[in-house]
Every structure is written in structure tokens, then in C-alpha cells.
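for ur thesis appendix - HTH CENPB-type domain-containing protein. copy paste whatever u need, i formatted it the way the template wanted (i think)
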Amino acid sequence: MPPIRDGNKKNLAEQEGRILLAISDLKNGKLSSVYRAATIYNVPRTTLRNRLNNIQQRSQTRANGHKLSESEEESLVKWILDLDKRGLPPRHSLVREMADYLLSQRGNQRVGEKWVIQEYFDRVREVISEYGILPEDIYNFDETGFAMGLCAAAKVITGSDRYGRPNLLQPGNGELVTAIEAVNSAGWALPSYVIFTATTYYQQSWFETLPQGWRFDISQNGWTTDEIGIRWLQKHFIPHTTSRTKGRYRMLILDGHGNHLTPQFDQICTENNIIPVCMPPHSSHLLQPLNVGCFAVLKRQYGRLVDQRVRLGFDHIDKYDFLTAFPEARTMAYKAENIQNGFKATGLVPFDPDHVYQKLTVQLRTPTPPPSRSSNSQSSCLQTPQNPRQFKRQMTILKKRINERTTSPLEMIDRAINRLYKAYEMSFNELLIVQKEVHDLRAAIEKEKRERKRSRAQISHEGSPIAQEAQELITSRDEASQPISAVPVESEHQASQPRVRAPPKCSGCGIIGHKINRCPNRTTS
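the 3d part is after this line
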């Protein structure tokens, strides 16, 4: 069952009420001693004294580890909820991009890794609490790729007079193989699911020395596909884990790869009481137990076995050789200690997010606004601010001048100015968000316009032409479509015939062929 929440929050609220009553009695003169007030109302004396010195309650005070200001966070939340209402809830990467854009307006700043990772651990905590998931029912799965004939990088011993890294002989087979692996937090691993690069199905020799429970699949490039991901879930993960489930639900930690986020994959998980939880992008080196505890050892051991075959004179590694070496390397990598250390190092079992936060090198600090200058002139104070920094600087000057002209601070004016500043800051942040959305939309429209201007005419060709052949076809088609010129051109037959002299014409009658001495129209002198 989900853990029972304690009443700590309720006790703090009751204590805060007693502190407010004690402060009221001290200010009204009903009590004159802090010690007596703390005793009567049963509150800590130091807490009561701090509150009298205008030190706010810790839960009401903003922590120092925030890069975004309070108004920036409120604007970001408003933008997220607006997208959600439109049916477009943003992913972590898009929210992070927008937060980085807001920070870029105040300088070259970006949010840290902890900002996204904390949301992931909050999600894990909520799932464990909501579904009552036991530590023994937490799994992690991912795929890892191998080039069958390539050795892993390793340190070697060479002569002291060598400069640079020595070359390592490789068998030369770069065919890709993908292995889908899954591990349990208790320290055991599911049988491997191997994907070969092939178009025809399996060879009998592959199964001769294969461990029990292993499963094969094929694809044209050796990578996983949506269909392979579904088959792995239905035919491999569910049958191997159903009988070993301690509670009702299983939690499956996975990355955000497209093959893991299909609607059918999610539906099958729902029907079988499997709760998938996706890690943020670019965080598997910190949050994925397989990456942290097993994959590095697996590839190192496999590279060592390939290197041994090279030294024995084998210059080629085929699928059968891979299936001989890979199970041995897998046995060395998937030890119970390595698997459990992976879940511990990623803060999952036992649940300890601080174990991961300590590895982050990013130190988050609230940005300090620039100090106001005493030499600011009145004209600069009256200028319209162009960004939140200029506006806050002017507000600081105004507050200072108001305090210098009065003996006591004007609380009403001070509150009004603070509200005005917050309203302006939120409006400015919302304007920045809208400007970025408009910029992205215009870029997408311009790209769409360029796409529409491209020629969609088809080329008549059998097979798959190379680029040069396609250009020749386009050129010949364009020449054939040009209009015919009106200038008469001699045909080839006419140009090949010799020229024949025209018969003589009679000068008297103009008839061709008349002899001039016989023409009746001949004139005599």
C-alpha cells in the first residue's frame, strides 16, 4: 500500500497560528517577555524572536537555488497551462528551451541540469506513492548497439619511444547488432533480445549455444522499430516479469526514444499494470541504471573477447561468432552487484535524488540585480525602461529618494511600487514568450513557402538514378518543352542536293523556255 503521509504539514500550520497570537500579545502589551510568550503558546523561543525581527517563515521564503525569478516562473507556468488547454502540453525540452530564452534576456545564462532532473524525481515519487510500487517491482530497459567486429578502446602497453596512440587491428566487420536489455532493482536481468541486420530470417546455427530464454529479431539496419518494441513488450518483458511481480504494479524506467512512446506501447502497459516513466533527454548517463552500472562493462568485456580472437588470427567476426562471445561478456556485466549499484547510483533504489544532485557540477544561484548608481541623473530616472533590469534600477532610485524625503518609510507607497514592478515584469516576460512563438511561427511559414516553390514534376526513369543522370533527364525535358523558332531552316535532304541552274526566261514574253529568235513578241530594231 502507498506510504501514509505524516502530519508534519498540519503541525507546522498550527504552530504558525500560535506564533501569530504570541506576536499579537507582545505588540499589544499583554505580554512583555518573549520567554513567557513562547512558554504560554508552546512555540520555539528562537523562532518567535526571529519573527519579531521580521525574519519570514522558511516555507514562505524563496530559496536561493533559483535561476528564474519568481515572476519568470509564474509566466512560464501560465504559458505551459495555456498550451495544455489547447491540447498541446509541452515536453521537457520545449519548457527548458523557453526558460533558457527568458534567461538569455538577462545575459548569457541557461538553466542547469538539476532544473529538469528534479521534475523527473518528483514524477517517480508520485508514481511510487500513487500506485504503491515496491522496490522489487522497479525495472529499467534500454537498447545498446554493437559493431560485431570492432574492439572497444582500451589501454595497451607499447614502447616508450612511441608518440601518439598505437593502432589496434580490427576484424573489419562493422555490421550492427542491437541488444534490448532489461534489469530489475533486486539484481537480476531478463534474457537478451537480439536484433540482427538481415532481410531473411534465422539460421539454425544461431540457436545451438544460445542461453535459454533469448529471443531474436531482424531489421534492415539492425535498429529497433515500433513493431519490434511492441513484440519485446508483449512476448518478452511481460512473460518474464509477471510471475516475479511482488505487488500489483510494475514501474518501467525508459528513455524518450520514439519506439517507446507509441500509443500501442502505452496501451499495452496500461492493460498489464505497467507504469512507464520516461527520463529527461540527455540524462541517461545520470539516471539510467543500465548505462551507469552495466553497459560500459558489457562493451568492455565484449571488446576484450573480440581482441582475443584477432590475436588468434581470426580476421572476421560473423553472427555465430558474436553469439559465442556476447553471452560470455553479458555474464560478466550483469552481475547482481553491478545491477544493484546502478539503481543505487541513479537514486532509484533506495530512493535518494540527492545522490544524483551531488554529481551535478552546475551550482544554481539566484542572479543578483545590478546595484543602483548614486550618480544617476533625474533624466535617466524619467526614461522609459527597455528591460526588467533598467526598470528595477529605476525603482531602486525612486525608493531611495522617497526614504530620504521622509523620516519613516511609506509602506503603502512601497507596496504599490512592488506590485507595479511585479506586474510590469510579468507582462514583459509574457511579451518575450509571445515574441519567441511569433518568431518560430514566421520561420516555419517561410520554410513552408520555400517547400511549396520546389518543383514537384516527376522524372520518368526505371530504377534509382544517380544525381548526374537525374540532371541530364531534367535538362533534356526542358529542351523538349522550348517553343519552335519561326526562322525557316533547310532540311537535311535539301542541304545535301547540288544546286541546279534555273532555265532561261524569254525577255520578250517572259515565258520560260522560249527561244528568243522564235518568240512572236520579239522586237526588232
